Structure formats: structure tokens, C-alpha cells
């Protein structure tokens, strides 16, 4: 049986692959769709962590690491929102720059922390009922309509600073 850590790490890889497909050829006809699918997966993944996985880990004493993860989720959510705005406006070049310059850096820093610190605790810190709820959600769960991560909008807007560092 796959551990919860393995299941969540596999989701990280799938999300990364979708982002990489977009970045490999952002002007390709299917590139924005690949990125939107990756973003849907990332938003769903953030939901399952914030609503199912993290509360019992926080109760088990992982308050500091979870606060860091929540703050980083907010930053990622805000970047995704800005990228989606750029794509809707037809500005694929700026969207790709923002993904390449900001989102990939956030994920490269964020995912290893979850994978090394929090995920190994899931199979032991979560009660069997919570483990099963997490497994079921990983297998077939959907992001509830209108759900937004706890820290979305709490960081400076992604568009305030262009990936190259100049103010917009």
C-alpha cells in the first residue's frame, strides 16, 4: 500500500510536470490548458493539505512548519491568480515569466519542506479515520467550489514586482 507521503509526493510531481509542459512551449496552443490543469491540481492539493492533512499535524505540535506552509500556499495562490489574469488577457509571455520567475521558485523551496518534515508524519500522526479521508480525497476528491486558501490575498500582489524585479 502506498504511504500518504508517497501519494502526496506523487501529486507534487504531477503538478510540476504540468508546469514544465507549459514552460517548455508557452506559445503552443495547448500550453495554457496544461498550465490551468496544473493549477487546478495545485489548488486541490493545497485544499487537501489545509483542510485534511494539516489540522491533525498542527494538533500534534507541528505549528511552526504548518504556519510556514500556509504562508507559502498564500503566495502560490496569489501568483496563480495573477498568472490566470495574464492568460485571460492573452499575455502568455508575462504569464510564463511569472511562472518561471516566481512560482517555480516557490515550489522548489516549498515542496521539499513538506516532503521532509510534514509528510513523513502523516501515517503516524493522523488517526485511521483521518488517514482514510485523506486517501479518499487523494484518489477522487474535488476542490469545493469557491474555496480559497487561508492566506490568499495576504501577500503583496504577484504583479507588483515583475519577475525581473522591476515595478509594474
UniProtKB/TrEMBL annotation:
InterPro entries: Hemerythrin-like. It comes from the Bacteria. Residues 4-122 form the Hemerythrin-like domain. This is Hemerythrin HHE cation binding domain protein.
Amino acid at each position: 500500500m502506498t504511504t500518504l507521503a508517497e501519494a502526496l509526493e506523487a501529486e507534487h510531481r504531477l503538478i510540476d510536470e504540468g508546469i514544465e509542459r507549459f514552460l517548455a512551449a508557452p506559445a503552443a496552443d495547448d500550453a495554457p490548458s496544461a498550465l490551468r490543469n496544473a493549477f487546478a491540481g495545485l489548488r486541490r492539493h493545497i485544499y487537501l493539505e489545509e483542510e485534511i492533512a494539516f489540522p491533525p499535524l498542527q494538533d500534534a505540535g507541528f505549528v511552526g512548519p504548518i504556519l510556514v506552509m500556509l504562508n507559502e500556499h498564500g503566495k502560490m495562490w496569489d501568483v496563480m491568480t495573477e498568472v490566470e489574469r495574464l492568460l485571460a488577457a492573452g499575455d502568455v509571455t508575462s504569464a510564463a515569466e511569472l511562472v518561471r520567475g516566481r512560482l517555480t521558485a516557490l515550489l522548489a523551496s516549498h515542496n521539499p519542506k513538506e516532503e521532509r518534515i510534514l509528510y513523513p508524519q502523516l501515517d503516524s500522526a493522523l488517526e485511521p479515520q483521518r488517514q482514510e479521508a485523506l486517501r479518499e480525497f487523494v484518489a477522487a476528491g474535488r476542490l469545493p467550489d469557491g474555496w480559497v486558501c487561508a492566506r490568499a490575498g495576504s501577500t503583496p500582489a504577484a504583479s507588483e514586482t515583475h519577475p525581473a524585479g522591476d515595478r509594474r
